[in-house]
Amino acid sequence: MLDRCIYEAQEILLVYDITSYPMKSETQPLVALVGNKIDLQHNQTVKPEKHLRFCQENGFNSHLVSAKATDSVFLCFQKVAAEILGIKLNKAEIEQSQRVVKADIVNYNQEPMARAVNPSRSSVCAVG
Description:
- By secondary structure, the chain is mainly α.
- It has a domain of about 60 residues.
- Keywords: GTP-binding, Nucleotide-binding.
C-alpha cells in the first residue's frame, strides 16, 4: 500500500518519541494524507472525492492544500498537532488561518433594455 501512497511524494515525515525505547507504542500513529497543488484545479487528476474516500478506507486524516499559495498549509499542521494533543479546535481557530478573499463591489447601471423586435426569440444579455 505504501508504494501507492508515496508515488511521486515530495516529502514524508515520520515523527517518533525519542524519550521512549524501544520504539513501540500501544496506539497507532496518526497518518495524514496531504494533497498539494489545489491551486491548479485545471490540471487536477485526483478528484477530492477520491482523495477523501482513500483516506476514509485507510484510516488517514485528509488535507488538501496549496503550498505555493499557502492555502490551508498552516491549518493542516494546526489540525494534525491538535489531534495528536487531543485538542478540539474551535471555529475561530480554524477560521483565523483561512485566507480572506477580497473583492470590490461593483454597481452596474440598471437601465431597462428595450424590448426585442421579435418577441418569440430569447432576449440577449450584453456584457460590457
